[in-house]
């Protein structure tokens, strides 16, 4: 009987060890993503791919690639295309690094990213008027940048637009083809 008791105790300890290891892995900070040698592709105004990993900028919601906006005179223009071009320009300066904060429902690393001479890329996109503060569900931390862009009529604020979350809800997801960062 005694050998079985030891086996049972060892099995219980092994299971506890595995549980503790799994908890430690879940709590470990996600690995930093850097573009050093990896191909970088811009998907839309707030998403990009570094190597095989897809990244979404935390705290903002950019107009979708296929989303139109309206100028004050009523003319429609492709603001989603401009948002993607702006993100590509910001990361083209090099030094792209992203700190994953979470993983979203699509498996993307929701991250705070920076690039050479830019600092917080999400803040720059909101300040230039190509994204709104927040992710469509929660308020973001870029309200000052958004207020300044709106007051100066930069980017999407120069005319009218549908909030990106509302536009996505009204239009089936049609992902644009990623373009290499220039």
UniProtKB/TrEMBL annotation:
SMART domains, per database record: SNc
Domain of life: Bacteria
Start and end residues of each TNase-like domain: 33-159
Name this polypeptide is given: Thermonuclease family protein
